[in-house]
């Protein structure tokens, strides 16, 4: 039996990139235009994985939680999601996760979703065994609140008898395994030992999980899987942008990884002490492809003159218009600005302006941050005529 395992679509997500230098739009983060592209990319990834499922002849698509960013997404997000789901020919199973739990406000139960939901889409909001095709069962462990107090997957496994001969059984869950999240104070962690035992005695044949945005397979039994998010959402994700095509029998799972994501969140560390270092950073940013679908986070260390710092500001501002976002991560940067004699000379000012610049230069040398900022601004204004 073949099916597609995916999770964490988080449709309706907005992305804020904080701490940016230079400042972005007033709302912070992605520009309005880039935010619209980012939202569309998530829907495009859904359409792409649907096309893969159809082309591969999958029995169903299993979405293991967080279909939507929250239960409060607007009706426009719901409508566009249902349009994307409507393009599938393959049945789709949606499991509520921690972002869209099956509580009283669940978006997957809202009238606007129910009215538009295609008939081949099933919401697994009831825990337990669901027969989804002859000889195929999905054991659902949906989140019923934002803060469950038990291991929801463990509860379902404990209630199972071994599957009938000839029946394939897939567990659909959402959350971190205890080996990935060692927080002993988190009662909803999934106990890996219980999952391994259920696979060993035939209660289930594959454990499909969501919540972890990076792809992961268990080293002991690779039938325990996180597919990762189908479209990147942050800088710390490992190999996002994929879905899993699973060929399953009673003894093994053969898993193929298919790429559907197109965005990238790139981290770049640079040391800046000279004009050549700025040239290298400029070239590095210029060489990155697909800028309209790329957010860049920079960690910068080193020492620059005021002239060089002004050039850096202009460089980042110029590149920022081409990329979805460019930010300097302040907490991981240590970039000092130290004025030198050339800074004052390069201004080539006269009269009152020269006196003011000299006074600011002296104060900046005494580590007056406001004076340094003023001199940086003066350099930028002079450079721009």
Please describe what this structure looks like:
Residues 1-176 form the Calcineurin-like phosphoesterase domain. It holds the Pfam family Metallophos. InterPro entries: Calcineurin-like_PHP (IPR004843), DNA_Repair-Maintenance_Comp (IPR050535), Metallo-depent_PP-like (IPR029052), UCP033093_metalloPase (IPR014577). This is Exonuclease SbcCD subunit D. The protein is of the alpha/beta class and 385 residues long. Helices cover 32% and strands 22% of the residues. The strands form three sheets. The protein has a six-stranded mixed beta sheet with strand order 4-3-2-1-11-12, covered by helices on one side. A six-stranded mixed beta sheet has the order 5-6-7-8-10-9, covered by helices on one side. Strands 13, 14, 15 and 16 form a four-stranded parallel beta sheet that branches. α1 runs parallel beside α2 (75-86), α7 (306-320) crosses α10 and α9 (351-365) crosses α10 (369-383). The longest helix is centred in the N-terminal third of the chain and has 25 residues, at 32-56. The N and C termini lie far apart (69 Å).
Briefly say what this structure is.
The protein has 385 residues and is of the alpha/beta class. Helix content is 32%, strand content 22%.
């Amino acid at each position: 039996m073949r099916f597609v395992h995916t999770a964490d679509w988080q449709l309706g997500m907005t992305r804020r990139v904080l701490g940016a230098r230079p400042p972005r739009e007033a709302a912070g983060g992605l520009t309005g235009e880039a935010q619209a592209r980012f939202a569309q990319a998530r829907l495009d990834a859904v359409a792409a994985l649907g096309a893969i499922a159809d082309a591969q002849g999958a029995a169903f698509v299993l979405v293991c939680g967080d279909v939507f960013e929250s239960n409060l997404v607007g009706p426009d997000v719901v409508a566009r999601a249902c349009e994307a789901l409507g393009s599938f020919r393959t049945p789709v199973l949606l499991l509520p996760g921690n972002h869209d739990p099956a509580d009283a406000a669940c978006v997957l139960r809202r009238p606007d979703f129910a009215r538009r939901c295609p008939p081949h889409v099933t919401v697994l909001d009831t825990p337990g065994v669901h027969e989804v095709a002859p000889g195929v069962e999905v054991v659902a462990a949906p989140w019923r609140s934002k803060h469950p107090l038990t291991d929801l997957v463990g509860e379902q496994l404990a209630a199972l008898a071994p599957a009938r001969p000839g029946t394939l059984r897939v567990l659909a869950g959402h959350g971190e395994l205890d080996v990935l999240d060692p927080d002993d104070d988190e009662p909803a962690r999934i106990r890996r030992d219980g999952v391994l035992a259920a696979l060993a005695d035939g209660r289930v044949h594959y454990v499909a999980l969501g919540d972890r945005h990076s792809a992961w397979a268990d080293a002991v039994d690779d039938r325990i899987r996180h597919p990762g998010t189908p479209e990147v959402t942050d800088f710390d994700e490992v190999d996002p942008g994929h879905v899993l095509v699973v060929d399953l029998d009673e003894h093994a799972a053969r898993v193929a990884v298919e790429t559907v994501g197109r965005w990238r969140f790139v981290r770049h560390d640079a040391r800046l002490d000279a004009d050549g270092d700025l040239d290298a950073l400029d070239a590095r940013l210029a060489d990155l492809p697909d800028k309209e679908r790329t957010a860049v986070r920079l960690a910068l260390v080193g020492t620059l003159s005021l002239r060089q710092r002004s050039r850096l500001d202009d460089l980042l501002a110029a590149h920022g218009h081409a990329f979805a976002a460019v930010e300097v991560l302040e907490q991981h940067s240590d970039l000092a600005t130290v004025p030198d004699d050339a800074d004052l000379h390069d201004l080539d000012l006269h009269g009152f302006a020269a006196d003011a610049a000299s006074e600011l230069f002296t104060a900046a040398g005494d580590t007056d941050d406001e004076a340094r900022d003023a001199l940086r601004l003066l350099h930028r204004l002079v450079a721009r005529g």
